[in-house]
Amino acid sequence: xxxxxxxxxxxxxxxxxxxxxxxxxxxxxxxxxxxxxxxxxxxxxxxxxxxxxxxxxxxxxxxxxxxxxxxxxxxx
Length: 76
Prior knowledge:
This protein is 68% helix and 0% strand. It has four helices and no strands. Helix 1 crosses helix 3 (33-50). The two termini are 21 Å apart.
């Protein structure tokens, strides 16, 4: 799944059949699902921040960003 699909999902512009495929890909046992869920979460947080939505943060965002940085640096 690419970021365009995730963005369309967050904007409620993804066709129903694509939504179904995304939901399957997000399941805990699907390959790459953890990374996909993290990307979707980060994109939602960015969308909320750009839109001016304030949300309390207990460090969740920082943990996700640290995990994404660690994943990127571990890649060859």
